Amino acid sequence: MKVIPQRAASIGAQVHQQLRDAIVRAELTPGTALSEAEIAARYLVSRQPVREAFIRLAQEDLVEIRPQRGTFVKRIVMDDVLDARFVREAIEVAVAREAAGKADAAAIARLQATLATQAVATSNAEFLAADEAMHREIAVIAGRESAWRVVDQIKAQMDRVRYLSYIDVSPAQRLIAQHSEIVEAIAAHDANAAEAAVRAHMAEILQQLPELARRYPEMFEGS
Amino acid sequence: MKVIPQRAASIGAQVHQQLRDAIVRAELTPGTALSEAEIAARYLVSRQPVREAFIRLAQEDLVEIRPQRGTFVKRIVMDDVLDARFVREAIEVAVAREAAGKADAAAIARLQATLATQAVATSNAEFLAADEAMHREIAVIAGRESAWRVVDQIKAQMDRVRYLSYIDVSPAQRLIAQHSEIVEAIAAHDANAAEAAVRAHMAEILQQLPELARRYPEMFEGS
DNA sequence: GTGATCTAACTTGTATGGTAGTATAGCAGT
DNA sequence: ACTGCTATACTACCATACAAGTTAGATCAC
């Protein structure tokens, strides 16, 4: 049993986490102007930790810091989302292939458990959490958990879109069916089938994007 | 002709760039203790920008900030390098396949030009710059330049190893031969050959790692 | 009315002082 | 010689003050 290395996170880290969640969940809508002083007042802290949180967010491409002008929640750039999708597909395909080769009975059971959780999810956030848990679990099975950290970063851009689209465009049932195919392929140790299933799943967002850009134009960059 | 949007970068950004280069080039060796005050004194700036540079570096996994203890150049973790390699291979394979489909005569000429540059490189840094230019060019040809930004981040971990190994382990000639195969496959619009060539190239580091860990044990994490 | 200009209210960037936590060297008591 | 406490010299972290730049609006000249 390890001694608790868990200390209270720094204020800057906490602010970063809060803002990141808010941006990904589209509570802070694209284009919104943030200001160090305003956020600092809201959280009753000084400007410095807030500033550091902004720097972190800027490095994740979630905000844009314009010197002496302001900091803004980045608008969704269609090309960026498409490139994020491309990279994510490349990584997740490779991960799924490895997982298909390494999955044992216990691992398969864990995957099926997440599928069940998705089926009974009653809210958008709940479903997306189970969704993410499944994808991460696949990475763990493949022994590439740290590869998931990369996907997690990339994914943020896509998730912003997903939070807009879950209710409207893609019914959960459809996504669960796709997930189910991935799990079955891994359970059957069929790498090729796993790859095909992942690619089909990753194609989903391609169909959503045009519709979303039409419906929420103010959240997208005109570029 | 665009008006110069280039303004002097902030001090924090400059310090970040300098330190990042120094770490990747192994001038700042793994395990070295950095301190806000020390670096600030060295560059004749205040501690705050230095602190912000540290935060950026920490997010890139190049340093580790231990609260109230110090900030240290991260030691090279074998597993992290292997995972970085895995992710990079997945992305670069996908990029190369697309490039094979899209390359026109001008693009192929540009690739061959970088090959020539590599052949006449007289220093480690010079060769690595040409190497990087070629890989980025492939991404540009594929129309996935922003995907390269992801690789660039991942690659930092691998580059730290490469700066140790260039002279000792992998002769440039061997790498150039591998690069040449990649270019030929793309020029022939043969996606499968391009994939195979990239995978072979990415396997190179696997052979170097054990030897390097043996030779420079103090730069690696015992974990 | 129209246009240029100045001012005031923002913004981010930098410097500095102080705080809390950690590690270490040295001294005290065995 | 060895153990345990204490003072001290670090560290990152946070708050505050100041500087430099941008922008929007009021004001003044025409």
TrEMBL record, chains A, B:
SMART domains: FCD (SM00895), HTH_GNTR (SM00345). Keywords: DNA-binding, Transcription, Transcription regulation. Pfam families: FCD, GntR. Residues 9-76 form the HTH gntR-type domain. InterPro entries: GntR_C (IPR011711), TF_FadR/GntR_C (IPR008920), Tscrpt_reg_HTH_GntR (IPR000524), WH-like_DNA-bd_sf (IPR036388), WH_DNA-bd_sf (IPR036390). The keyword Transcription regulation applies. PANTHER family: HTH-TYPE TRANSCRIPTIONAL REPRESSOR RSPR, TRANSCRIPTIONAL REGULATOR, GNTR FAMILY. This is GntR family transcriptional regulator. It comes from Uliginosibacterium flavum.
